[in-house]
Amino acid sequence: MHTIKHHKADSLYPTFERKAPGAEVSHYCPGCGHGTVHNLIAEAIDDLGIQDRTIFCSPVGCSVFAYYYFDVGNIQCAHGRAPAVASAMRRVHDDAIIISYQGDGDLAGIGMSQIVHAANRGENLTIFFINNAIYGMTGGQMAPTTIVGQKTVTTPGGRHAANEGFPIGVAEIIASLHAPVFVERVSLANATKVMKARMAIRKALRNQVEKKGFSFVEILSPCPVNWKMTPVEARRWLENSLEPVFPVGNLRDLAKGPFDPLDRKKPARVSERRIFEILGVNEEEPHSGTVRLKEEQNVKIAGFGGQGVLSAGVLLANCAIAEGLNTTWLPSYGAEMRGGTANAGINISHETIGSPIVTNPNALIVMNLPSLDAFEDTVRPGGAIYVNSSLAKRPIRRADITPYYVPASDMAVDLGAIQCAGVILLTVYALVSGAITIETLQKVIPLSIKRKNLLDLNLRAIEAGIAWHRENCR
Ligand SMILES: Cc1ncc(C[n+]2csc(CCOP(=O)(O)OP(=O)(O)O)c2C)c(N)n1
Ligand code: SF4
């Protein structure tokens, strides 16, 4: 006799630990399609042997807690942004199998542009789009895929095309682009259709394993609770009302043949060496490794656009790299090309840096008065403020911070170029904090400044900073 043993897929956790009440059970409502799709995906992951290299991108929506279920790498993405997160991971993890799992509110509402552009780039990703024609998690509002006449919380009289537009066929939109290799719509209306869904899910994952390109599976899925039906009624409605609007079937399968819309054999990747060149970092330059930080440096450099605030930040971060330290640089600037406010946060540490954001710096370098006004209160007690006193002509108000008033713009004008003010302040910061050495600063600056006269000016700016420090800080 033939025996079939059913067991839970290895890539699903054995129990779903949740906060009580209801610990160790799925948080999905009875008859919900999410659980079915989770199973189909998990079994495919097992059978393809990819559990250890799969990264699952959870959306915002009822399936937000997919990371409680899938025993794979997990990341939870901002609403609708999973395709962008997945694309970024694609670029850095060549061998990872990356799944973006999204509802219709997430993918076709707030995230429509993300999915269209990821598909258009032909990212080698697998997208599972759970279309239940409603916003489930938030209590049944109209989704872009809600069908005409369907009653929802926000369309109590039923969706009317003249008011809310027509339901959007996302699979058709994706199939209208050149790059995707596999687009299929499936349904969970009955057991036979679930088996078809199973095959499409496997195919979409296998395509990624074989590096074939962008695969998209739209899955028509019941949401009995918000459709206000029993699970059995919901499956019937799915078949009789949803499927006619969203016909199931394959819309594209280029993965079958040799055709590769993106000519993937010749990947247009930027080499690491080129990235170093763009950043102005010399890869061959041995790290000096001489600096021992007294404490992690969280630096904010702020001023107005055109003062070289952002490039001073890049210079500092590159010096930190040259010192063999970990660093991040995160710019923030107004929409204007010139004259708007600009600031950059730079972290420097011996340890791995968790976030590039600098909210409370221990070193603030301010190039003008508005920046001093804006950021003085954010500095941590015991920190330091390096003030460009040529433009920020007031003493600092805080007593728990050490100020350094450097007339950097006047000094830079004396040298012959006002743009050098940032380098003067950076030099004073380097000498006071010890976070980077002057030798490193002198070595790194030529990597990003190619014009000889500008380079000379900047090297003289460093000398001016050293002289100011000698006269004022001893
Ligand atoms: C930026 C942002 N906007 C709105 C919300 C509220 N919100 C949470 S889930 C959701 C809709 C989810 O619907 P869908 O993607 O269809 O998934 P389902 O819950 O049906 O599985 C919305 C609008 C949010 N969390 N974040
Ligand atoms: S609200 Fe709908 S989509 Fe969400 S868990 Fe319940 S049945 Fe599933």
| Topology as a string of helices (H) and strands (E) | HEHEHEHHEHHEHEHHEHEHEEEHEEHHHH
Question: Which consecutive residue ranges, at least 5 long each, have pLDDT under 50?
Answer: none
Strand order of the largest sheet: 2-1-3-4-6-5-7
Major sheet details = 7 strands, mixed
Hetero groups in this structure are:
thiamine diphosphate, iron/sulfur cluster
Structure, explained:
The longest helix is centred in the C-terminal third of the chain and has 21 residues, at about 450-470. Helix content is about 40%, strand content about 15%. The chain has 2 domains: about 35-255, Rossmann fold (3-Layer(aba) Sandwich), CATH 3.40.50.970; about 285-470, Pyruvate-ferredoxin oxidoreductase, PFOR, domain III (Pyruvate-ferredoxin Oxidoreductase, domain 3, 3-Layer(aba) Sandwich), CATH 3.40.920. With about 475 residues, it is an alpha/beta fold. Helix 1 (about 35-50) packs across helix 8 (about 190-210), helix 12 crosses helix 16 (about 440-450) and helix 16 (about 440-450) packs antiparallel against helix 17 (about 450-470). It contains 17 helices and 13 strands. It has a 7-stranded mixed β-sheet, sandwiched between helices. Strands 9-10-8-11-12-13 form a 6-stranded mixed β-sheet, with helices on both faces. Iron/sulfur cluster binds near residues 29, 32, 223, 224 and 225.
